[in-house]
Amino acid sequence: HGFQWPSLIQSLSEKATASNHPLSFRITGFAKTLEELIETENRLISFAESFENIIFEFHGCLRGSELMNLKRRENETVAINLVFYLSSLSDILKVSDTLTTVHSLNPSIVVLVEREGTQNRPGFISSYMDSLHYYAALFDSLNDCLPLESPERLSIEKNHLGMEIKEVVAWEKDERSYLRFGMMETWKKRMESHGFSGIRLSSKATIQAKLLLKMGSYYCPQFDGDSEGSAGGFRVYERDDGEAISMGWQG
Fold first, then answer.
1. Is residue 190 part of a domain?
2. Which residue intervals make up region (SAW) (predicted)?
3. Among 11, 26, 154, 188, which is most buried by a count of CB atoms within 10 Å?
4. What is the pLDDT of residues 21-77, one digit of tens each?
5. What kind and span of H or E run contains 165?
6. Could you give the number of structural domains in the chain?
7. Are 73 and 42 contacting, i.e. CB atoms less than 8 angstroms apart?
8. Is the torsion defined by CA of 171, 174, 180, 185 positive or negative?
9. 8 Å CB contact between 221 and 230
10. Residues of the domain holding 150
11. Helix (H, G, I), strand (E, B) or coil at 62
């Protein structure tokens, strides 16, 4: 819903101030419903209006719109943010087509965010045990962070985790099931096979990720994102020689 962009808008404004030259910033956002697009657009436009040196544009597209319609402007720096998007596609071919289109835009950076898991391993017992451990960790995090009768917790359990568990137990092992969960190494190979290569993240990115996690985890009494020996909580840590950041729960 666009919550990741205000910090970038603020950083661009600081850069524009330093160079004494306004910057243009255009976002093309995808959402499932028109209401989500309108809400996101209004929120971002309202925020961007407080920065006089940022010329802001927002273009909304419904999920399923053709990526081929995206056009790069002259002298435009392109950054693409794929958050849980590739795993929502119906088959490997559509993932390949999407990555091919993304690569054709010649972006300066592509950020890929996906959940990790091994629930797609062949065999019911293997899949069941992997799912059991995965969702046990999620419920452990809820136990430490939200009261048992909390409306927020009940909503998460019913509308999100409950539906996911039902799908995991009921799904047939088709091609789409292998996109729902995958390890970082699998996604890395897919990206590299389409011409992308990893880059080392700056230390600032990790520090900011930990800060944002702390800001969103104020209600969790056991949270300590910087302490390796604490009893439990969410963690943000670097992987793949600093080319990836992961968030996980340690009980």
1. no
2. 170-251
3. 188
4. 999 999 988 888 888 899 999 999 999 999 999 999 998 888 767 665 677 788 889
5. helix 162-170
6. 2
7. no
8. positive
9. no
10. 124-170
11. strand
CA-based nearest residue to 13, from 51, 49, 66: 51
Q: Are 204 and 165 members of one domain?
A: no
Question: What 3-state class would DSSP assign to 242?
Answer: coil
How far is the C-alpha of 105 from the C-alpha of 244, rounded, in Å? 22
Whether 49 is covered by a domain: the verdict is no
To which residue do tokens 């729902």 refer? 180
Q: Give a yes or no: residue 65 inside a domain.
A: no
Task: Collect all residues with Cβ–Cβ distance below 8 Å to 57 and sequence separation of at least 6.
Answer: 24, 25, 26, 27
Q: Measure the CA–CA gap between 230 and 239, rounded to whole angstroms.
A: 20
Per DSSP bridges, beta strands 109-113 and 79-83 are parallel
CA distances from 103 to 10, 235, 244 (A): 27, 31, 19
Task: Record the tokens describing residue 175, joined without a space.
Answer: 């091609």
CA pair distance 223, 235, nearest whole angstrom: 8
CB atoms within 10 A of CB 175: 10
Q: Which residue has the tokens 């799912």?
A: 131
